[in-house]
Amino acid sequence: MPVKVFYTSVSGSNEIKKRQQKILDVLSSKKVEFEAIDISQDSNTKDEMRKMANDATALPPQICNGNEHCGNYEAFLEAIENEQLEAFLKLKKE
Question: Which domain of life is it from (predicted)?
Answer without folding.
Answer: Eukaryota
